[in-house]
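Structure first, sequence second, as always.
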């Protein structure tokens, strides 16, 4: 199975002027290609990690340099110019047979379904640059003036002063892995966790003199504020759930306990049964009068890997996964979010999106690519048995089903109704998980140890075990 996965991954490789520069999203010849024949920045990350773990860093280096070059392009959508630091969502290689010449064509959101903004692309680029540096021991790439400038441009978009009263990033729907309307607008956990991790990686990569010095100072201040905000207000466990249940509303001044004026009656019924006696998780979103209590896998795993989650919170997230194994893992790891939204709420939140029907695609679908993130997170928390169990579950079907993009159903029993086969990141996610299982030192590429200086005084319960 591993051998055939490598063969499939190599078939997905994209070349530009003779050099490998990435992998296409899927090698599925049974369907119209649509946008699956290009290199997506977020999709390439597990492929890149697989190549790094296998001692093949050249494709990763080429990818980092080519996307960096694309960042410098003028970016216009309908006469509106995007920020200088925006990284492309994807790119493709165009071959001109007449001139026998190859060029790169980038998409910054102007061609995407729904014209969604690729907010996460820049964060993944920084995280991958750090993984490359950690894996190869070669800092010369990150030290290049072009790379240093690229990091600064990405983060200057996020660290600029504005009207917001929170240290989190305000984002529109569709700005991350969930790239269609799913009600994640506002302050989605995935973006906040990736933002936090990119900031920490940037601290390790940026030179602390010259133009980098001021940026480093901004990063340190933001990390302190962001870690406190996320650990305090996005964290949910049984005690915190009970506190919200008893909230008073219309509180004014800095002494308010219910700081976001959340109405207790807005608590969904499912969350009371879902929350185990021990355990907890970072909820999907927090903003004025709104708490999205859904579980999002990627955001919680990245929170562990970046040490946004305290050790106690990381343990509690693992406790939750074990306690709710059937709901979150089931017959195919791992639920991208839980639970699904349906009926009238589905119509309002998704705009009647036929691809995001209940328990399908981003609306409670199961995504094999998340296996690598789960595996890395469980090793970070010292719970390798969870990874072994999840990989065994995936191996029972993943290869036999020809590596689907996602699975449908309450426990991930059915191949997704519109899922592409031979999906590259499903293949790469499995390979990365297997290699981490065989050599846990690989986890160091994507995991950051806790920064003791950033540990705030917690005013809320991490978990009942604290």
């Amino acid at each position: 199975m591993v051998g055939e996965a490598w063969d499939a991954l190599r078939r997905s490789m994209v070349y530009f002027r003779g050099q490998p520069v990435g992998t296409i999203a899927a090698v599925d010849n049974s369907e119209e290609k649509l946008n699956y024949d290009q290199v997506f920045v977020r999709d390439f990350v597990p492929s890149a990690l697989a190549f790094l773990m296998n001692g093949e860093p050249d494709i990763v280096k080429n990818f980092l340099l080519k996307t960096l070059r694309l960042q410098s392009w003028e970016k216009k959508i309908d006469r509106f110019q995007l920020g200088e630091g925006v990284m492309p969502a994807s790119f493709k290689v165009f071959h001109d047979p007449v001139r026998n010449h190859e060029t790169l064509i980038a998409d910054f959101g102007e061609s995407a379904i729904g014209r969604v903004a690729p907010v996460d692309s820049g964060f993944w680029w920084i995280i991958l640059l750090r993984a490359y540096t950690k894996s190869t021991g070669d800092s010369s790439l990150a030290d290049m003036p072009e790379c240093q400038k690229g990091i600064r441009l990405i983060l200057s978009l996020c660290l600029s002063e504005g009207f917001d009263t929170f240290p989190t990033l305000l984002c529109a729907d569709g700005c991350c892995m969930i790239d269609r309307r799913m009600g994640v607008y506002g302050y989605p956990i995935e973006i906040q966790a990736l933002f936090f991790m990119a900031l920490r990686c940037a601290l390790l990569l940026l030179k602390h003199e010259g133009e980098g010095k001021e940026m480093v100072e901004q990063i340190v201040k933001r990390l302190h504020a962001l870690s406190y905000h996320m650990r305090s207000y996005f964290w949910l466990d049984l005690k915190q759930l009970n506190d919200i249940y008893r909230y008073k509303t219309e509180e004014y001044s800095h002494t308010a306990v219910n700081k976001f004026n959340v109405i207790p009656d807005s608590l969904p019924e499912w969350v009371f049964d879902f929350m185990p006696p021990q355990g907890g998780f970072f909820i999907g979103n927090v903003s004025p009068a709104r708490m999205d209590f859904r579980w999002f896998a990627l955001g919680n795993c990245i929170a562990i890997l970046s040490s946004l989650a305290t050790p106690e919170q990381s343990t509690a997230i693992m406790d939750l996964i074990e306690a709710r194994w059937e709901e979150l893992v089931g017959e195919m790891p791992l639920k991208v979010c839980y639970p699904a939204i349906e009926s009238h709420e589905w119509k309002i939140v998704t705009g009647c999106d036929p691809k995001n029907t209940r328990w399908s695609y981003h609306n409670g679908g199961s995504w094999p690519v998340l296996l690598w993130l789960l595996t890395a997170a469980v090793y970070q928390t010292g719970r390798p048995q969870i990874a072994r169990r999840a990989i065994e579950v995936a191996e029972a079907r993943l290869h036999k089903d020809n590596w689907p993009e996602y699975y449908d159903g309450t426990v991930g029993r059915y191949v997704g109704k519109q899922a592409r086969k031979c999906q590259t990141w499903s293949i790469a996610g499995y390979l990365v998980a297997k290699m981490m299982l065989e050599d846990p030192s690989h986890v160091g590429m994507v995991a950051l140890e806790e920064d003791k200086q950033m540990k705030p005084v917690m005013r809320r319960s991490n978990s009942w075990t604290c």
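Margin note: The mean pLDDT is 93.
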